């Protein structure tokens, strides 16, 4: 499966409408991003059940800034709409495969319970 170009127009819907979404935050001038590109594309072909997106940080500065992207490449993984992985730096193929496996194996009931508890705690502190 080819990667999807993410923009402000499709970023949120891509995350909300797909079970697992991996996103490569990159820029054309970034040498490590260019080296990581083929690794990411290969993983995309090997995992057709996952949505692989690429977001050009230069063209989408509002999204990158809103997510706190300060270094590229950065890889983020979302599962069921929840950010479950966020790491700056290029990964090799084996490392990316480990991330994919870990995301697939997550106990999402536990993750959602943790997110709910965290929100409740934040709301209690805010009151």
Automatic annotation (TrEMBL):
InterPro entries reported in the protein's UniProt record: Thioredoxin, Thioredoxin-like_sf, Thioredoxin_CS, Thioredoxin_domain
Keyword Ligase among UniProt keywords: no
Alphabetized Gene3D superfamilies for the sequence: Glutaredoxin
GO CC entries: cytosol
Signal sequence residues: none
Keyword field: Disulfide bond, Electron transport, Redox-active center, Transport
SUPFAM superfamilies in the record: Thioredoxin-like (SSF52833)
Alphabetized Pfam families for the sequence: Thioredoxin
Residue span, Thioredoxin domain: 2-105
Family statement drawn from the similarity comment of this UniProt entry: Belongs to the thioredoxin family.
The protein's name: Thioredoxin
Source organism per UniProt: Auraticoccus monumenti
Higher taxonomy: Bacteria, Bacillati, Actinomycetota, Actinomycetes, Propionibacteriales
């Amino acid at each position: 499966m080819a990667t999807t170009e993410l923009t402000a127009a499709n970023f949120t819907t891509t995350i909300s409408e797909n079970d697992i979404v991996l996103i490569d935050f990159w820029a054309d001038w970034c040498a490590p991003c260019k080296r990581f590109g083929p690794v990411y594309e290969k993983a995309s072909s090997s995992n057709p059940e996952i949505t692989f997106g690429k977001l050009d940080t230069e063209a989408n500065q509002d999204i990158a800034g809103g997510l706190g992207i300060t270094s590229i490449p950065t890889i983020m993984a979302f599962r069921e709409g929840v950010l479950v992985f966020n790491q700056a730096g290029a990964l090799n193929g084996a490392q990316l495969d480990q991330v994919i496996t870990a995301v697939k194996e997550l106990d999402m009931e536990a993750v959602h319970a943790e997110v709910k508890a965290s929100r409740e705690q934040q709301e209690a502190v805010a009151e």
